[in-house]
Structure formats: structure tokens, C-alpha cells
Design goal:
Length: 301
């Protein structure tokens, strides 16, 4: 003990690089980035492949082998943030794979082409179109249907184990959108044989988060008109979940809108498939103007 009662300790910077790397890898990617500012020794350990190897999922090389195009990276840290910022298309471009920036858990989006959509192959009701800001080569646009039913699935083995996930429908509304307010749509999530989530949602409320009417107001995203000034107001179910765009002023970084379909917990990835459905089949009225990007599964925060 030094004079003044201060306990002398060894300089942590003198620890071997692999020891520092192991300690940093037990934190988080966010902490690893912050620790690089502590000292030169910490920076070396925090940026090392040994550290970032532990933040990547164990099967990341297998996932990359399924990519449509080779994924180039100079370091494991660069790869980690590449997957966070720009998900990789896999399985013939029908699925995207990425990572959650804060947890390193796997994220996926099932493209519209990989979903089962009632009358999706009938050009009288749906149209397949390319959109510049889509991560996939094409999305599907609703022309007119009286029976809206969309289903998708993903294997629990592909997801990160011991992880709570949330499922989102990713979409836009054309300026011709009609009939997507009432009755509200219904969503369901099933894991294996167990139904784990059911929700009532509304894609086209007549007011902004039940606060302000959107009559005559629209914005343009990626060349598409997105709006809710549709003339006849839609009554919003007070218990229905609204799209993120109407719940807050923020929007997704990619410009699309999202609405939560439900959530589930992936224990050990041995439950079979996660099945996800979105439908409105009770109203019997016609619906149009939904531009469907896909269904996204990402870790719950």
C-alpha cells in the first residue's frame, strides 16, 4: 500500500495481447470499440481477429458460403460491421442474412418471392416489380384482392440460440392504397407446433398514430408514393398495432415501413420451423396498394 492509502496494482497494459483479447470478447461489440481508445495495447487487442471472431456467429463461414456473391473483408471486425450495415443475399437472393450491431445475433429477411402469397402468381391481383431501394431484385405490389393472405417460414436452426426474436412485416403503401385500414389485419407466429403470438395490426390508419389526420398528405420514397390521404377515413381499432412510420417520426434506415407481427424465443434451435402469417380474410372487401418487401426476423432489444 502506497502512502495516502492507495493500493498499487499492476499495469493492465502489460497483460498479453491474447489475454486482453479474451477479456474484451466477453463484453460486447460496442464495448470493444470503446476499449480501443483506452491505450495502444487495448486498441491492438480490441481490433484483433481473435476478439471479433467471438462476436461473429459460430456458423458465419457456412452462412457466407450460401451468399449470392463473394463477401470480401480485410478483418473479422470489418466483416462484423459489413454484416450489420449491409446484409448479404443468400439462397439465390431469396433471403438476406445480417447481424444485430449490439448483440451479434443473426438477423434474416425472407423476401416476398420466398413467401407464400394467395394469388401471388396471378397478374390480375399482384405484380412483381423491381424497386431501387429494395435489398432484393424485386418486390410484389398488390393490385386488388378481397382475400389477403401472406405466409412465411424459417428454420429455428438458422437463428441464434437462446435469443428472443421479433418479427416484422416490411412494406410501403402506394398512393392508390385502399382497404388496408378496417377490418384490421391479423398476424400469428407459430414455433414448431406451438402458437406463440397473435396480434391485430393496421397498415393504413386514417390518423397519424391516432393523433393527426393524413388527408391529402404523402411522401415519396424510392419513386413510390406513400400516403394515407385516401378520401374515406378508416376506423382504427384502438388495440391494433400501427406501422412504425405512424408511431413515431423516425423511419427505417432503408426508407421502408415496418409493423410488428409478434415475437418468439428461440431456445436451442431444435423446434423445427417458425411460421409467420399476415392476413385479412373476413371483411370481404377489396384491398390494393400494398408494396411488400418481405418479413424480417431480428433480435428483440
Amino acid at each position: 500500500m502506497e502512502s495516502g492509502g492507495v493500493i498499487a496494482i499492476g499495469d493492465i497494459n502489460q497483460l498479453p495481447n491474447d489475454c486482453l483479447s479474451h477479456v474484451i470478447s466477453l463484453t460486447s461489440s460496442r464495448d470493444a470499440c470503446a476499449s480501443s481508445a483506452v491505450s495502444t495495447a487495448f486498441r491492438s487487442a480490441a481490433d484483433s481477429d481473435d476478439t471479433w471472431q467471438r462476436f461473429l456467429p459460430p456458423d458465419y463461414l457456412y452462412m457466407l458460403s450460401r451468399a449470392v456473391a463473394p463477401v470480401e473483408y480485410a478483418s473479422k471486425k470489418e466483416l462484423f460491421f459489413r454484416l450489420c450495415d449491409r446484409p448479404v443475399l443468400i439462397d439465390g437472393g431469396k433471403l438476406s442474412f445480417g447481424l444485430d450491431r449490439w448483440s451479434g445475433k443473426k438477423c434474416f429477411m425472407v423476401s416476398a418471392r420466398a413467401l407464400w402469397i394467395v394469388w401471388g402468381s396471378d397478374e390480375r391481383y399482384w405484380s412483381w416489380v423491381p424497386v431501387p431501394d429494395s435489398r432484393f431484385s424485386e418486390v410484389i405490389s398488390l393490385i386488388d384482392v378481397c382475400w389477403l393472405e401472406i405466409r412465411g417460414k424459417i428454420s429455428t436452426k438458422m437463428l441464434s440460440p437462446q435469443t428472443a426474436y421479433t418479427v416484422y412485416l416490411i412494406f410501403k403503401l402506394a398512393d392508390t392504397a385502399r382497404g388496408l385500414g378496417t377490418p384490421p389485419q391479423e398476424t400469428a407466429i407459430t414455433v414448431g407446433e406451438e402458437a406463440v403470438s397473435r396480434k391485430s395490426v393496421c397498415l393504413q390508419p386514417d390518423d397519424r398514430g391516432r393523433r393527426r389526420l393524413l388527408r391529402g398528405q404523402f411522401r415519396m420514397w424510392g419513386g413510390w408514393g406513400v400516403g394515407a390521404g385516401m378520401g374515406v377515413a378508416n376506423e382504427v381499432d384502438k388495440d391494433a398495432t400501427l406501422p412504425q412510420k405512424w408511431e413515431s417520426e423516425g423511419e427505417r434506415d432503408d426508407g421502408w415501413m415496418e409493423i410488428e407481427m409478434g415475437g418468439f424465443y428461440n431456445s436451442n434451435g431444435e423446434d423445427g420451423n417458425v411460421e409467420m402469417s399476415f392476413m385479412e380474410v373476413k371483411g370481404g372487401h377489396w384491398k390494393r396498394g400494398l408494396i411488400l418487401h418481405g418479413i424480417e426476423i431480428r433480435p428483440k432489444h
